[in-house]
Here is the input.
Amino acid sequence: MLLHPAQKKVAIDTHRFRVLRCGRRFGKTILLIEEIKAMAVSRPSRIAYIAKNYPQARDIAWDLLCKEMKGAIISTNESRLEMRVSTVEGTESIIFLRGWESIENLLGQAFDLLCLDEVAFMDNFWVNWENVLRPTLTDRHGIAIFASTPNGFNHFYDLCNKELTDIDYKTFHFKTSDNPYISKEEIERARKTLPEEVFVQQYEAEFRKKTGLVYKEFDRKIHLYDELPPEVKSWTYLAGVDFGYQNPAAVLHVYTNGEMFYIDDEWYKKERTDAQIAEYVASYNFKAVYPDPESAGGVEELRRRRVNVREVKKGKDTIVEGIQKIRELLLNQKLKINRRCINLISEFEMYSYEDETDKNSGKSLKEIPLKAYDHGLDAFRYIILTFKPIDAINKRQHEIWDRNRYNLNSTR
Here is the structure.
């Protein structure tokens, strides 16, 4: 396939990590296939194309790849979406097509090239990139290409800004109109018939807030900070814990004086046992810890390590109650989040209701948000619903707990 001029700008760039922000029908998948083809036939390589799900990898990329690699294919395994092709040297390359939902299967492998398609729609992106995919490029000094249309201010927004702090990254921005094969009349028709925010995001690849957001009050300019104020370090130090294994476990480090809350750090990890999570929590001197009460095993592991576990309220009604309390904190600017909490920030910008709204008010008809992008948010909700400032009556109890904790640590 011949690349059009905008695609060529990406193809000739030499940055190790290229990020492609583009409008619909720009030709991002075609560009990725061309990148795969070029490397696969030039030298023996291990390459993975990763779509947002398995059906997309099969229905879009697989057929296109088979067509483009015709003549170089040695063998294919269609059920596994794997292909072996010959190089100009007479050696072999292997190409894997995978869906994001099974990304853990790439653990321990090594690649020369990773191509990620529709990155903005991949759940738990940073956890999987840092813990699963980035290490696969280490041995072979591999490269990666990330392509997507924006989907609100989520992890893809942060990925597009990586070039500001990391010289290995380069971001490209193209509109649908940069594809010369797309009719200008069709684009103008879409501009006139679609809501402005939809057109701007889908066709011009500009970032807009996701519709149906739970926390519309969240604003990076207002609620993020870089350094914890010195006086806050003397406030009560708490942790919220959301257990997980296939889904990430989330631990939030929170300082509060009872009115203001600073979330200063986060810990998001997949495939961690209850014991490993509890060991992490116990390594910090939290005054109190608020864990998911449905994980009896996890709570017990915390107690074994003499962690000051607090009883947490949980249920359908508490979700609505917790959301309202967090909204109030945001509105009153009583909640601040450290910029390094990239997973939690992404959740604030992606946590949403089903797309069902009242035509008159525009309000969601659903009380409970979709069960996605909520691990850190749940951990914070456990704190918000349960925490009470330490008063004179129970201050002595905390002093005793601190002394017992010190004695336990000193005997380890």
Remarks:
- Residues 240 and 380 are 6 Å apart (CA to CA).
- DSSP finds 14 helices and 14 strands in the chain.
